[in-house]
Hints:
This protein has 539 residues and is of the alpha/beta class. It starts with a strand and ends with a helix. About 1% of the residues have low confidence. InterPro entries: CheY-like_superfamily (IPR011006), Homeodomain-like_sf (IPR009057), HTH_AraC (IPR018060), HTH_AraC-typ_CS (IPR018062), Sig_transdc_resp-reg_receiver (IPR001789), Tscrpt_reg_AraC-type_HTH (IPR020449). One of its GO terms (biological process) is phosphorelay signal transduction system. This is Response regulator.
Amino acid sequence: MIRMLIVDDEEIITDGLFDVFSQLNLNLDLYKAYSGEEALDWMNTTRVDIVLSDIRMPGMDGLELMRNIRSSWPHCKVIFLTGYNDFDYVYQAIQSPGVSYLLKSEEYDKIIKAVTDAIQELESSLKFHDLVKQSREKLTTLETLAQGNYFRYLLQGTRTTEELEVDFRNLGIALDPALPILVAVADMQRTNMYHSFAESQNAALAVKFLAETFLAERTDRLGIIDHYGGLVWLVQPKHGQVTELDEAYARTVKFLEGQFELMQQACHDALGVTFAITICADTCEWKQLSEIYDRMRSEQYWRAGDGAQMVQTVTLGTIGTAANSRTLREKAESLAIHLEGGNREGFLHLFNELMKTAFDERGNGGPFALELYYTIALCLLSYINRWELHDKVGTTGLMQRDRHSSWQDSYEFLKQTAESLFNLRLSVERNRAAAVIEKIRLYIEEHLGDDLSLVRLASVIHFNPSYLSRLFKQESGINLSEYIDEVRMEKAKNLLKKDELKIAEVGVQVGYETPHSFTRFFKKSTSMTPAEYREIVRK
Length: 539
């Protein structure tokens, strides 16, 4: 519904216009104010789409009111009522787009016509396909999906401001990691017209693209399709709009409330898509994102009614504190990601976080504790099965909670099993690394006279050269090139102790084609030439 505010310091005019438009079937949500200041209060409280205002008023006049309208609701249409002697005012007003004017002496028919024209312009601007076409130029579907994956990554743990800065730059995210965010969550209403995942995903994408147009002028934002096919927006006031940060965020909340309401109308009219919006009025630090997101989803679940075209604003004080709002399945996926990636710290942090939610104040478990136990146990068992670790990590009792004497013992068993898997992985990685290094050492000893370049050695074990170099140094405590020199030197000394080979032949056998190169290498290492060394060892 389009919202219109009538403003005039003469009550008879304000009330008269209000009565006229109340009787018309224009589907308008009408409000009235008797001064510019009172009108501004309305605009700071709710979205306004059309303002019908006197241009000359005591205190805040129409032009000052118009400037405030533009900063709060840029899409708003302004119709000024003027007197014959208001040319200077009118001239300034008509320089601004979306502004028209009428003489106060005009009949009601002309005023009604001006308002209906403004309604048509607003409805036209909400045409879905034109808006989507504009916003598609700013954001691609692939970028949207990548940013959605990154959002799920953000929910798994805290990133430093510096890390966020790099990530945002690489992913084209126009948010400041040093500032807090406002979070809005949309629950897409499922309808019979969406028979497949692709159709549902396309509908969510369309709403997201539409939001880019509605929110662009006043905010920096990231819109994401979450794990459930719903939408999440992370929002900051556009940089430099308001000096006071608290005021900027408060005004942005009001802006979001109004714009999301318009979006719902546009989506419903064009596609039959409806969605419920929950906005958190309190700012959220990046490290709080996972908790706030969980709590807002819980708030949506417990909403009143079906939520169709609902816009609700909540504060941290009113959001429910249920710690289990995000499903165990999603948290189990995070545990599995940590387990697969060998991230012991991340796994144990989430494990301990879940443990805090499993028991009551007396340490007793209930249905959630049981579900949580088997969710984690299944995650561990799946990992053991996939990597065939049954003979290395025992699974007896893993899927039998009642075999443990207490809840604490059962969860301690899960934790120890996870620790064993991480230790085993670390041991396997070290053993494989040791096997690779041993293979390289053996190859070097057997091919001292051949090409022992880093590229050649890397091809032997099918690693990239830089990784082999780093791995060798990490495992051996010495650079690969230094190790090759040591092996060459040791073999050269052994061969020089014997008389079967000439010095040049010794050099070739340890990888130096010219006598000069071999002599230089040998003298650098021993401070003597190969001939001097042979002479000394003969004595």
